[in-house]
Design goal:
The structure is a single chain. This protein has 580 residues and is α+β, with helices and mostly antiparallel strands. It folds into 3 domains: 4-8 and 472-572, 3-Layer(aba) Sandwich (Rossmann fold); 35-75 and 112-240 and 403-455, Bira Bifunctional Protein, Domain 2 (BirA Bifunctional Protein, domain 2, 2-Layer Sandwich); 256-383, YbaK protein (Alpha-Beta Complex). Helices cover 27% and strands 28% of the residues. The strands form 8 sheets. Strands 4, 8, 9, 10, 11, 12, 13, 22 and 25 form a 9-stranded mixed β-sheet that branches. It has a 6-stranded mixed β-sheet with strand order 1-29-28-30-31-32, sandwiched between helices. Strands 17-15-16-18-21 form a 5-stranded mixed β-sheet, covered by helices on one side. The longest helix is centred in the N-terminal third of the chain and has 21 residues, at 171-191. The two termini are 39 Å apart.
């Protein structure tokens, strides 16, 4: 017999009104349906129905991890500072790392991620290449002290995550496991009923150079991404792009200095000079560790991508307000003509064929028009510098990039030796020589995935869970709390449970409208409605929450009919290769 619950005994305090602090559908509906409650900013308690969904997501994740040979363990949330000091992240991670001291004054942190502690564990136990490869995972709480926690489970401070770590003796082995994890993550997304795309990404605080994010497509997503029908997809932060240029001036002319008083924006400059914004070039400045300046030149109608700037000039930091005074350069009229001695000029590759730039003259309230690369100034490096956007050219096939918004639900990384070298984690190779482990890191946001599923599956009445992660699969709604209607409802409820279906009986003494509203709010995938009129005709009604379709079914066929619907819904979410 499967799970069979009664609504009268479920702790699910529903709310009639939308909570004032809830901005997104997932946040609003999880609160209204009595599945989560706020404990503090960005910290939530999971109530029984919400926790049932979380456990189902965890079970799917565990099945996929076990299937590729990753082994589950559990690591402490409280981590000693010295491990983070070894890796160098104690100083670098920033204020999101929650730090504390014990009664003896020893420093610790609440783990936002577990690279340091897993590396410490493995370096103490794994000594030979014969013990590799090794893949370990956990499902655990994380804590990141976000400055502005918001959007419920999508941007919380405390959250549930599956993180896995792999250790290898060769790049081929790391790549093989990275690919296996990628396939497992695709299967997880499919089994959760998510419409998703794997996208190229930037590694951020985790590190490494090779990484892929799995984005659940949703208008509420914080991340912007671009993609092409050829299969290319990338987060805006990491997307390569081909900028299509249509300069108005195609023949070189003389460079002329123009007085441009009180001009502060590219739009104002273009209007003042009577040229198109795309004929202007804006320059942003950064500094290298040795103090040299770097000028980044991009089309005036585009934005510099700071991550790409760092790829083009490793170690660069964009200038802040105080730096401009320190270097004695004008913030509003920078340009590549006669910059301070030693300045490295890096320009977006799309500008390479342009012969007439409208640029700052490195003098307050002055600009040049007609400036030509190599004649009037030198570009040391041409690089992809701009933020990609829909309409750009695909870097893979040359097609046109489309845009979407997404919620990052999971991400995989090739860390290489980032942690093993800094933390002295080595093994003995075939020749007995000590070598640093090659590592991979792989994370699934469990609580975030639940919110993402709701963002994709909801309407004005409530949630419409995919059956694989719904708190329960079927709700039986007898429209009377006593008499024959209730007796038949209770019998159907038990028979559904005996057939292996997770079933809830709404046995409350409530009006039919209340039961219908709560069933749709909570989002039971299938609802069996039993009323006096139907019983008189020997039928009951079965509703598919996702489609709204209602079907009258003979009483004798009801259990088999509902069991078939549930099986078909589960089969539809079986893993398939949607995005090779």
């Amino acid at each position: 017999m499967a799970v069979a619950l009664r609504m009268s005994s479920i702790y699910a305090p529903t709310l009639k009104e939308d909570p004032a602090e809830a901005e997104l559908a997932s946040h609003r509906l999880l609160l209204r349906a009595g599945m989560i409650r706020k404990t503090a900013a960005g910290i939530y308690s999971f109530l029984p129905l919400g926790w049932r969904a979380i456990v189902k997501i965890q079970d799917i994740v565990r099945e996929e991890m076990d299937a590729i040979g990753s082994q589950e363990l559990l690591l402490p949330i409280v981590q000693p500072a010295e491990l983070w000091q070894e890796s160098g992240r104690w100083a670098d991670y920033g204020p999101e790392l929650a730090r504390l001291k014990d009664r003896a004054g020893r420093e610790f942190c609440l783990g936002p991620t577990h690279e340091e502690i897993i590396t410490s564990l493995v370096r103490s136990e794994v000594r030979s290449y014969r013990q590799l490869p090794l893949s370990l995972y956990q499902v655990n709480m994380k804590f990141r002290d976000e400055m502005r926690p918001r959007f419920g489970l999508l941007r919380g401070r405390e959250f549930i995550m599956k993180d896995a770590y792999s250790f290898h003796s060769s790049q081929e082995s790391l790549q093989e496991h990275y690919d296996a994890m990628g396939r497992a993550y695709a299967r997880i997304c499919e089994r959760l009923g998510l419409e998703y795309r794997p996208v190229e990404a930037e590694s951020g605080q985790i590190g490494g150079k090779v990484t892929t994010e799995y984005m659940a497509l949703a208008d509420a997503g914080e991340a912007a991404l671009v993609y092409c029908e050829c299969g290319y997809a990338a987060n805006e932060d990491a997307a390569s792009t081909v900028v299509v240029r249509h300069p108005s001036v195609t023949e070189p002319g003389a460079m002329t200095k123009v007085h441009t008083p009180d001009i502060r924006t590219i739009a104002e400059l273009a209007s003042f000079l009577d040229i198109h914004e795309h004929d202007t070039v804006k320059t942003m400045a950064g500094k290298l560790e040795d103090g040299r300046l770097v000028y980044f030149c991009v089309p005036g109608d585009r934005e510099l991508n700071p991550i790409k700037a760092g790829w083009a000039a490793p170690g660069v930091v964009l200038l802040d307000e105080a730096d401009f005074a320190t270097y004695g350069i004008p913030k509003g009229s920078l340009g590549p003509v006669a910059p301070p001695s030693g300045t490295l000029v890096v320009a977006d590759a799309s500008l390479q064929g342009d012969v007439s730039w409208g640029i700052g003259a490195n003098e307050d309230d002055h600009h040049f028009i007609g400036a030509q690369p190599e004649r009037d100034f030198t570009v040391a490096q041409w690089a992809d510098l701009v933020v990609a956007r829909p309409g750009d050219g695909c870097p893979t096939c040359g097609g046109v990039l489309a845009g979407a918004r997404g919620i990052e639900v999971s991400q995989i990384f090739q860390l290489g030796t980032k942690y093993s070298v800094s933390m002295g984690a080595t093994y003995a190779d075939e020749n007995g020589d000590e070598q640093p482990f090659l590592m991979g890191c792989y994370g699934v946001g469990v609580s975030r995935s639940m919110a993402a599923a709701i963002e994709q599956r909801n309407d004005e009445s409530g949630m419409a869970w995919p059956v694989t992660i719904a708190p329960l699969e079927v709700a039986v709604l007898p429209l009377n709390a006593d008499g024959e209607v209730f007796e038949v409802g209770e019998r159907i409820w038990r028979e559904l449970a005996d057939a292996g279906l997770e079933t809830v009986l709404d046995d409350r003494d409530e009006r039919a409208g209340v039961k219908f509203a709560d069933a749709d709010l909570i989002g039971w995938p299938f609802q069996v409605v039993i009323g006096k009129k139907g019983l008189a005709e020997g039928v009951l009604e079965v509703k598919d929450r996702a489609t709204g379709l209602r079907v009258s079914v003979p009483l004798a066929d009801a259990v088999a009919h509902v069991a078939r619907l549930v099986a078909e819904a589960k089969a539809a979410l079986a893993p398939v290769t949607l995005h090779p």
